[in-house]
Structure formats: C-alpha cells, structure tokens
Amino acid sequence: MSPQRAAQPAIALTRTVVDASDADTVVERLRPLAELAPVFAEQAQILPYAAVMANAGDDEPHSQGEPVSRSGLLRHITPEFAQVAAQVLASGLAHWFQIRALGGAVSDVAPDATAFAHRDANFSLVLMGGSEAAVDALRARLEPFTEGTYLSFDSSLRPERIELAWPPQTLARLRRLKAIYDPESVFDDNFAISPAAAPAGSSGGIR
Predict the structure, then answer these.
(1) Burial of 2 from C-beta contacts in 10 A (0-12 / 13-18 / 19+)
(2) What is the pLDDT of residue 144?
(3) Is residue 93 within 8 Å of residue 4, measured between CB atoms?
(4) What pTM was estimated for this model as a whole?
C-alpha cells in the first residue's frame, strides 16, 4: 500500500499467484480480490513456476538512497489493527506499507525445527520510509499487534533487534550452535548472534 498523493487516493497493490493452468479457474480465484474495492489496473498471466520466481530483473537499481525499513509478524488482521494501519498509511511518513501472507505450509513446521520460530503468524508486515525516527514511531504504533520481527526486512542493526527476532529459547539454541560452529564469530555481518559463553571451568567448546 502506498500513501495518498496529490489528486490520487491511496492504492493497494497485490501480486497473487493461483496454482492452476486453467484460465477460468484463475479468474474465479481472483474475482473476490477484484471485488474488494474499485480496481485501478489489473494484469493476469499464466506462467511457469520458474518465470514467477524470476520476476526480479538483473538491472542495476536506480534509487535515491537506502530506505529505512521495519518489520513485524502478525497473527490476525483485526478491526483494531486495520484502524491503526490506516492511520499509519495516512500519516504520509511511510513510503509504503506491505502485508505479506504467511500461514499455510509455513505453520506445518514445528516452531523449534528451524531458526524461524514464529510459525503461528499469518502475516508479515513491512514498513518503509526515509527517516529512522519517523519509521520507528510508526512501528511503535503497530507493535501492540505484532510479535517478533523478520530481520530480512529490517534495516536497523541495533542489538535489541536480535532479541525481538527470536523467542528466548530459540535464541539460546542459536547461541549454543554459534559457540560450536563459529566460536570466533567469523560470520559477523548484519544481525550477528554472539556465541553462548562456555560453562565455568570448561576447557572446551559447548556440547
């Protein structure tokens, strides 16, 4: 969703994939989305899976500086959340505000099976803007509705982001693994996890 601009209302953009090769089935599945609000523009294509995944071009990006981004994980879109999200969008301080669908097969995996533990979230939120202070203030308004964050959509490298990204048990397990496989913190870019300290009196690595 992008904020309202001069002589133009706020616009919501959705990129939806329907797993079907029959055109009538695709239209049937997309019709409910098209009926949510007046449609500004629409485009539909039947493509192989490889073409869908190759939607990002190889051209050099042409931008005006790196955006400030924050993320959050959301279980449900409630009327209360929707009201605050509308206020965030209307503030004009967010360049765009994205809601990504999770759930489905993501929640079939046990929370402790991988490093990504927030598998009960149905949505991922991404908020972008040009000012750290402004984006943080908007993120604070959404925080009562979210749990955790997805670091790939967070441009802040502050250490507390790590505490927010993983539940305590998951983070403790990752720190133990870090102590075993990377005790010297060779991999220290971006959101680097510090290794767990060896137990007092221990002469070797953590087991």
Answers:
(1) middle
(2) 94
(3) no
(4) 0.74
Strand 68-74 vs strand 96-101: parallel, antiparallel, or unpaired?
Answer: unpaired
Between CA 97 and CA 4 the distance in angstroms is 12
pLDDT for 206 = 46
Alpha carbon distances (Å) from 114 to 50, 170, 206: 26, 9, 20
Residues whose CB is less than 8 angstroms from the CB of residue 182 and which lie 6 or more positions away in sequence, other chains included: 195
Kindly report, residue by residue over 55-104, the tens digit of the pLDDT. Answer: 666 666 555 667 899 999 999 999 999 999 999 988 888 888 999 988 88
Q: How far apart are CA 191 and CA 7, in angstroms?
A: 41
Place of tokens 């994980």: 73
Q: Are 125 and 68 in contact (CB under 8 A)?
A: no
CB contact set of 116 (below 8 Å; sequence gap of 6+): none
Q: For residue 150, give both structure tokens.
A: 């997805």
CA–centroid distance for 57 within its chain:
21
Answer whether 182's CB lies under 8 Å from 195's CB: yes
